[in-house]
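User: I've been trying to design a sequence by hand for this structure and keep getting stuck. Would you show me what you'd pick, starting by listing the structure so we're on the same page?

Assistant: Good idea, let's start from the same input. This is the structure you sent:
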């Protein structure tokens, strides 16, 4: 009987057989079943991990791109942080922080200081570059959220909102960049303008302002033989009826320092002005007014020098008797001190002196004359400012390079003459004029600034007028000009009439009025209120001003301009000059400086800085 082997037993001596196909299939099926059952929890976990990795993208697409753009408009990178894009947020935010720190550093002295700094062409280009780059950076930060959300539809409202944010960003950048470019361009033109070379080449002159209603000689060609401090012979003595002159708008009460330009100036003795000859005699009232208002001494002199004492006056005939001969106090020739080099003294670094020349364009002239000549000297230690105006009809004066001007040649035409090759000056036209004014007054001149008077008053108009303290009422019926005494606001038109009027007063009074308006404009410009019109002011200045002053250093004097000390006003009329008989000047009305008296004034004002210092008897 045979033995039955248990199922699955191997016969003795046989090798272990491999599993059968069925046996293999069963475990594989089990394994497959196991794999297919166990990974379900793992699959869920993997899905969770994947969703975490894409969470920022899902969050970005779920949040409002318009709100993100608005946040980036306020601060580049803030919108990216709102969308969960931390790396992009850092990329936009870090340069923004650097730019903001730079801006804060530039504005630490105020907006006016920053604006004046752009007169430095290199600095203006830096501001232009930073403004343009930062504007583009902000624009990229604003557009970024919409790029992230491009996978879903963008509503029309969101698109319009983004466009408005971009327009605002580009507009802000344009304002800063355009002002920087205007400053760069204006600075270059102001430094290279040369009005007198244009005059010498007979280039067209700028169009003058419209003629003032009722104006006389100031809006008509000036006859060189007409006395400059007397009414024009072409004008009737009867005032032109101007209805009721509209008084100037009273301004606010101004707190001005003692000695401000508006303070009354002591009247010079009638003996200080020679009576004109019959052929050129002005009306008695005009002569009396001219003599009474000539500025001889300031209301306050600089603290570091004594007040000048004019020579004792001598008796002279009454202005009502114009037919008498000139007073003995007016010599036939002006005594000239011993000639010195142009300056005579080493330059004082604690003093800044500039000559301002106002160029007046009038109908009928073939060239412009520097009818306003003013020397402005500032003691940088005491902040005391001294203004000295030289009469435009000054003639027969010594040249600083040697020689002397003809008796009938007026100093207001000197720059034109030099531009035309006359007199052999070693310097350019305006440098010659500035040096000559400094030579006569006795102080070294550092820079000059030439200003077109019409452009000057357009600048007054741009800043909304100026406030002055008028010492005495100006009532000029010849030009219908009325300005009451006291604090007054002058608009551009009234300011123009105020500084040009001389029919009822004199050239010397007009020079003093020019000084008041100049100081008032300087005070107005040195305020943040003019910043919105900075571009217009720079454009006007580039057409109206020529100077060799280093404009890049303008802001260094802002503190000085805002904190001026005493201001002293001088006009070199009587007793510092006289009018020679016109028969000795070919019929031309001129004046001659009494240089010995000018020397005394110069030493009193400037001390050892004066070229006259130590040359007296």
């Amino acid at each position: 009987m045979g033995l039955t082997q248990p199922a699955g037993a191997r016969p003795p001596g046989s090798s272990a057989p491999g599993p059968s196909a069925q046996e293999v299939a069963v475990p594989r099926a089990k394994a497959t079943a196991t794999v297919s059952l166990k990974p379900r929890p793992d699959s869920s976990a993997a899905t969770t991990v994947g969703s975490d990795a894409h969470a920022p993208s899902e969050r970005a697409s779920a949040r409002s791109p318009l709100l993100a753009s608005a946040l980036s408009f306020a601060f580049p990178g803030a919108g990216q942080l709102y969308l969960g894009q931390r790396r992009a947020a850092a990329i936009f935010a870090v340069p923004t922080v650097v730019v903001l720190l730079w801006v804060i550093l530039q504005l630490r002295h105020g907006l006016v200081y920053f604006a004046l700094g752009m007169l430095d062409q290199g600095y203006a280009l830096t501001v232009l570059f930073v403004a343009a780059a930062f504007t583009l950076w902000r624009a990229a930060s604003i557009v970024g959220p919409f790029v992230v959300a491009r996978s879903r539809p963008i509503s029309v409202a969101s698109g319009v909102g983004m466009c408005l944010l971009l327009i605002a960003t580009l507009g802000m950048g344009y304002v800063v960049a355009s002002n920087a470019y205007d400053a760069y361009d204006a600075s270059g033109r102001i430094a290279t303008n040369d009005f007198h070379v244009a005059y010498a080449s007979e280039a067209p002159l700028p169009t003058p302002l419209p003629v003032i209603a009722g104006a006389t000689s100031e809006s008509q060609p000036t006859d060189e033989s007409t006395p400059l401090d007397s009414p024009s012979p072409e004008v009737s003595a009867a005032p032109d009826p101007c209805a009721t002159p509209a008084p100037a708008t009273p301004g606010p009460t101004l707190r001005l320092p003692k000695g401000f330009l508006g303070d009354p100036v002591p009247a010079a003795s009638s003996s200080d002005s020679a009576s004109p000859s019959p052929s050129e005699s002005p009306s008695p009232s005009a002569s009396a007014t001219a003599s009474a208002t000539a500025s001889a001494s300031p209301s306050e002199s600089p603290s570091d020098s004594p007040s000048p004492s004019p020579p004792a006056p001598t008796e002279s005939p009454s202005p009502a008797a114009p037919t008498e001969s000139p007073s003995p106090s007016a010599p036939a020739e002006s005594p000239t001190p011993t000639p010195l080099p142009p300056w005579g003294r080493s330059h004082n670094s604690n003093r800044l002196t500039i000559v301002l020349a106002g160029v007046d364009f009038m109908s009928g002239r073939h060239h412009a004359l520097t009818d306003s000549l003013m020397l402005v000297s500032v003691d940088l230690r005491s902040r005391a400012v001294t203004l000295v105006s030289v009469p435009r009809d000054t003639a027969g004066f010594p040249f600083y390079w040697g020689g002397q001007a003809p008796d009938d040649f007026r100093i207001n035409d000197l720059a034109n003459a030099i531009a035309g090759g006359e007199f052999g000056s070693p310097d350019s036209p305006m440098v010659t004029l500035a040096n000559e004014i400094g030579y006569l007054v006795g102080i070294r001149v550092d820079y000059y600034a030439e200003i077109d008077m019409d452009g000057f008053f357009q600048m007054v108009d741009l800043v909304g007028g100026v406030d002055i303290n008028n010492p005495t009422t100006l009532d000029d019926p010849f030009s219908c000009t009325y300005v009451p005494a006291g604090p007054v606001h002058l608009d551009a038109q009234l300011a123009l009439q105020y500084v040009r009027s001389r029919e009822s007063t004199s050239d010397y009074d007009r020079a003093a009025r020019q000084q008041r308006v100049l100081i008032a404009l300087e005070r107005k410009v040195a305020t943040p209120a003019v910043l919105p019109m900075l571009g217009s002011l720079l454009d006007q200045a580039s057409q109206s001003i020529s100077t060799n002053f280093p404009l890049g250093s303008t802001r260094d004097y802002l503190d000085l301009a805002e904190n001026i000390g005493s201001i002293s006003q001088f006009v070199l009329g009587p007793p510092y000059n006289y009018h020679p008989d016109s028969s000795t000047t070919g019929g031309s009305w001129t004046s001659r400086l009494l240089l010995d008296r000018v020397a005394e004034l110069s030493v009193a004002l400037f001390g050892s800085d004066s070229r006259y210092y130590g040359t007296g008897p």
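That's my pick for every position. To get oriented when you compare it with your attempt: Residues 53-192 form one domain. Residues 24-39, 41-53, 200-241, 244-341 have pLDDT under 50 and may be disordered.
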